């Protein structure tokens, strides 16, 4: 032991100075003056609301994507001590002193800065020269649009970081495949690939495009492994299972964990509750949980209930009736039954209460012990305030003449007898003997005489005229084939009726319940509902001043004004480096043309480049051109408001292609020393122009210094760009 101390302990380490320098410069470019401007910049007004809700533990739903990105932004607020108290209602509003601006913008800026060394390493792992890798990193570093997007509380830089990390991790894993299979580093990079993919998808669903690309590449590589006779069957099975675990199982598990943390943090009721089911709302602290606490679980004959339509959009509503009747004749001349109106009302009201009655008995109270209603039982629904029975008959509905009118029956002593028997069908039952349960059971009411199903039809956007108080229409749907949520109802509020007298019953309808039954949902039930809402909930597509089409992005015919100083005229725009964008398009075109040329020539057994150079060319194209295509082309199929920043993930892959094409041209098409020298000089001149354009537009990238009107006009290189000129 003492002998070991005779010699000094020496630790050696290899440091890539290029990588360190790029990281430092990247951090400076993204973190410099990060708190400026101390005002709400463009979509910070959108994401800031969610950060505040996280700070206050209030539940919300964002239809733009999963919650992981929002949680990362909220983490920045948490680390900065943000209490969530700020009104995010206007772009350009000055931040109050309690808002930690630097902390809120820190994680996107760090992610944007780290994209610079990631670009360098990706080209190294693709086996291109360090000079080409350095060029790719510098192009990312000097791309004005990426700088702008990463310096604010926005998600694109975080998304791009995880996309590039996933690509780099897979390349490192693949390069270790030949000589270090199942080693520690092999497992590390494979697992990191899956983790990065799940994080990319968790930030925005756009990350799914790159995830699918990497899965396809991994599948192709494994297909080639199957043909390797040196690998045993056992080894192939192990490789398959390892990839399945790392690239499928772990990403799915992590994706679920994002929602688990999200739902654990947001346990309080909030403004977005109403689009969720009653069961989900009841699981949150406050709100509906406050109202439904202590309700009986099992619906029995004599129960007093409110019925909420499960569809819940464009607004939640409850089965409702009031003393007014349908007009004898509608505006179009059609006649009605002149019975009491039944509607779907989007507010809580005493007229939403109904009593479940046994058709064979007269009592409207719950017996002792209670007799629960089960799937398939026949019931009558009695309106609590008017004591009239829910009814439908062969009379056309006011707005939906193909469906039956639903009413509360009034006996006019004419030849129209009451038809008020309904069969209870529990849609989500586990067996045919299931009991109808408060909140948990989703039920359909099938009319015994006509087989029509009780349905809220007003969700097409139409509401009843003034005689129906603009409430939503309820009909008996004759053609009830299939399942639709507008035909499904659940009991939201529930009490056991005790008063047979009407006056006492009306008092009872306003009183709170007293029995204590828990209705907690499992995590998977809440996840499934929330995920479905995120995927199906659609915001109203409104034309935005800075919205654009996918075709505008390639040539950067559009820009976005992110912020304007109220007095000095200083402003920030999402504008790219014109030289870089044009070069990226040229590089993509050259790559496609050269690839087609090589393929045609190879078909004729003419090999213009060595086989290893061809494989390098193809693999680089699979990553860069494939990454550009999967992150760009899907936008042509999307029906949503699009902005220039949606193109940034695709742009990054296109930028990576530029040095790849340049190195290929220099190595294989410049045969003489003179041509190589001329080509190198052109590349230096081109790169100098990239830097000059970066410097030219840096005032509208960083927001300072402020420019004069003449200088701002000089920056308008395209007529389609909206550079803001303040009137003097």
Automatic annotation (TrEMBL):
Keyword DNA repair: no
Recorded metabolic or biological pathway in which this protein acts: Protein modification; protein glycosylation
Pfam families: MIR, PMT, PMT_4TMC
A Gene Ontology term for the protein's cellular component: endoplasmic reticulum membrane
MF GO annotations: dolichyl-phosphate-mannose-protein mannosyltransferase activity
Domain called MIR: residue spans: 296-359, 370-427
Record keywords: Endoplasmic reticulum, Glycosyltransferase, Membrane, Repeat, Transferase, Transmembrane, Transmembrane helix
EC numbers for this chain: 2.4.1.109
Entry's family note: Belongs to the glycosyltransferase 39 family.
Membrane topology: Multi-pass membrane protein
Keyword Membrane: yes
InterPro entries membership: ArnT-like_N, MIR_dom_sf, MIR_motif, PMT-like, PMT_4TMC
Gene: Pomt1
Superkingdom of origin organism: Eukaryota
Catalytic activity: a di-trans,poly-cis-dolichyl beta-D-mannosyl phosphate + L-threonyl-[protein] = 3-O-(alpha-D-mannosyl)-L-threonyl-[protein] + a di-trans,poly-cis-dolichyl phosphate + H(+); a di-trans,poly-cis-dolichyl beta-D-mannosyl phosphate + L-seryl-[protein] = 3-O-(alpha-D-mannosyl)-L-seryl-[protein] + a di-trans,poly-cis-dolichyl phosphate + H(+)
Membrane-spanning ranges: 9-32, 68-88, 100-120, 126-142, 154-174, 186-203, 208-226, 246-267, 578-600, 616-637, 644-662, 674-694
Subcellular location per the Swiss-Prot or TrEMBL entry: Endoplasmic reticulum membrane
Name by which UniProt lists this protein: Protein O-mannosyl-transferase 1
